Amino acid sequence: MKITTEDIRVAFHAREILKGVSIESENKELVGIIGPNGSGKSTLLKCIYRILKPDAGSVYLDGEELHSMSVKDSARKMAVVAQHNYYNFDFTVREVVLMGRAPHKKTLERDNARDYQIVEESLKTVQMEQFAERTFSTLSGGEQQRVILARALAQQTPALILDEPTNHLDITHQIMLMELVKKLNVTVISAIHDLNIAAAYCDKIYVLKEGNLEGYGTPQEVLTPELIRRIYRVESEIVYDSHGKMHILFL
Ligand SMILES: Nc1ncnc2c1ncn2[C@@H]1O[C@H](COP(=O)(O)OP(=O)(O)OP(=O)(O)O)[C@@H](O)[C@H]1O
């Protein structure tokens, strides 16, 4: 599925947070949004996953304007792993993941064997199947993050929106998550802080600073020492290992 934003503008209390942001992901592309703290990454993603209506501009899913669709229709097209405090969920892990099936159900339709099978598979994929009966709020931050990813997988959508998905995860699970997301073969738009993760996994990167797009292209095109200096005020060096993989060293 193709996701497009066109000239998105958002202001809070007369302060402009997004100043006309247009991005595009082709079908099955993994698109990274990078930028310093407060640059507007989450705000842009919130406009895409419909928790925030922009003051101006539009979001299109395969050419269809987001707000012209029902919430259920857009939830069948896109699942979200956002940065929230999840701790208040007083549900079991299995129940949380089952919520991912809701957009596929009619009003009052009961969960069936297939829904439970999808939930078990999703939990296995994120290696959380042994936690199915646990109360969600008793999990660690990283475990919660993986359960929320399982919920998004259970939603079986052609697009995923991720807001710093590797936040809370140890290095094993960071790599697991990015490898998994890459293999899903769906469209992904993800805010990413770690530039080496962005370099390793993104097909395309957009750079946000103070609500403006400051760069766009493949990781090789975008992640140059000049851009990193301009955006983050940090000196860096780009090296390629024996596998041809790009690494950013911060000096
Ligand atoms: N509801 C709101 N009311 C007022 N200001 C807000 C609101 N939501 C976000 N902001 C401000 O908008 C700016 C952009 O926030 P946003 O969360 O989009 O940044 P970000 O790039 O995702 O940052 P981070 O890397 O720290 O997660 C910040 O200065 C934030 O304080």
UniProtKB/TrEMBL annotation:
<dbReference type="Pfam" id="PF00005">
    <property type="entry name" value="ABC_tran"/>
</dbReference>
<keyword id="KW-0067">ATP-binding</keyword>
<keyword id="KW-0547">Nucleotide-binding</keyword>
<dbReference type="InterPro" id="IPR003593">
    <property type="entry name" value="AAA+_ATPase"/>
</dbReference>
<protein>
    <submittedName>
        <fullName>ABC transporter ATP-binding protein</fullName>
    </submittedName>
</protein>
<dbReference type="InterPro" id="IPR017871">
    <property type="entry name" value="ABC_transporter-like_CS"/>
</dbReference>
<feature type="domain" description="ABC transporter">
    <location>
        <begin position="3"/>
        <end position="235"/>
    </location>
</feature>
<dbReference type="GO" id="GO:0005524">
    <property type="term" value="F:ATP binding"/>
</dbReference>
<dbReference type="InterPro" id="IPR003439">
    <property type="entry name" value="ABC_transporter-like_ATP-bd"/>
</dbReference>
<dbReference type="InterPro" id="IPR027417">
    <property type="entry name" value="P-loop_NTPase"/>
</dbReference>
